[in-house]
Amino acid sequence: MKKLFTLISLLMALTPFAQNPLGIFEKTTDVGPVRQKGGTSYDAASQTYVLSGAGANIWFTKDEFHFAYKQLSGDFILQCRGRLLGQGVDAHRKFGWMVRTGTDTSAAMVAAAVHGDGLAAVQFRRRAGGNVEEVKSPVKMPDVIQLERRGRSFFLSVARFGDEFWTVEVPDFEFPAEMLAGLFVCSHSAGAVEKAEFDNVRIVIPPKEGYTPYQDYLGSHIELMDVVSGRREVVFTAPNSLQAPNWLPDDSGLIYNSEGLIYQLDFASKKPVVLNTDFVKENNNDHVISFDGKMLGLSSSSGEEEYGSLVYTVPLTGGKPKRITATGPSYLHGWSPDGKWLTYTAQRHGDYDIYKIPSDGGEEIRLTSSPGLDDGSEYSPDGKWIYFNSVRTGSMELWRMRPDGSYPEQLTNDKLQNWFPHISPDGKWIVFLSYLPEVAAGDHPFYKHVYLRMMPADGGKPRVIAYLYGGQGTINTPSWSPDGKKIAFVSNSN
After folding, report:
1. pLDDT tens digits, residue range 340-361?
2. What are phi and psi of 171, to 5 degrees?
3. 219-493 domain in CATH 3.40.50.1980?
4. Assessment of whether the complete model's pTM goes beyond 0.70
């Protein structure tokens, strides 16, 4: 009955971006005695917003601006990318996120504001009728803007797209639980109207304090992203945990796992269908499609309980899986381009290393033997390399080695914890997941601030291509589109 309810809820889960003429917002209004009327438009096809607004300023004891908002309660994270349109009248015109206690001109508020002259700051009025204070950012003209409420504190995070966030905390706000939160634009010239465009707009509700990992789950957005422009599109939303999308080789949709089952999401219908995996029901987020598009490799706890996860293969069209690994735990990650080998992380001899095994079954071959976790193994499209992540230097970094385990080469070395390298179809690029430094090197938890980053396959300086809330299940599996222009991943919110 639970599986039936889950499937029904998935089929009914239409993305809120497409249903509402204001997208994810509930209302739009001018705040304060503005001279020119503002407005909000939402393009459901591109999932972008354009706000137009006038207003003398947002400063001192009163505010004048245009506001698209919804009511939120408790902790939240507001994310977007934005830019001002046109030359502008005043260099101090501004746009960004705002959180306020009401729509009165002198209401208590916090704003993540980016100005026309490049200034970025968190500006705030701690109580109604008070003067505005601010903390300025050293980042000039950022286009990625994040404002987070966490208890009594607000956190401003800004970046120029491609860079990591600069973040500051402003503590000790005595605000009510219920707040109005949304996008704003202010012309800073009473008679003028300015416009700002926003994309990648997300309102994230994090888990409540005391949640139990791997037992309590948030909802999920399946997203597609153009890796060059960074523009993201939510293609499916569900109230439960969806994980690890694989892009189908025929470009018709995605494969992902949820609550032990494998689903196929068709791009045309936007409806998920359960893929038949017969007795193999307890599938996790370590699955991979063969290069020829005919087979699906699975990791599942459907075998003997003492082994945990085992590796199976099944036709991509569904059927009765074939067990490949004799023992476990074994977590699948890669399939060789010639179809002959599977690579996986396995716990043997008290440590987690990378192994390979014939794709039809047989004797496993150990490829790594360094102390600590080696994980995320994936073949390059030419079959010359296996890419993986390893904690062998003390932090989680990306590596590659030859298919026989020889010539290991470290590719990243920075303060972030880097996981799951995925190689583009042309073999030139890697996309991977990066946790912030406070996450332990050997851990890849759910529900954290994470980056998706991209770098040349031979190594080089990584570039941030997505700023999101996720982690475990976001991009565990190969998820490039067949033409190498997009990736698929999961972001999370309650």
Report:
1. 999 999 999 889 999 999 999 9
2. -95, 175
3. no
4. yes
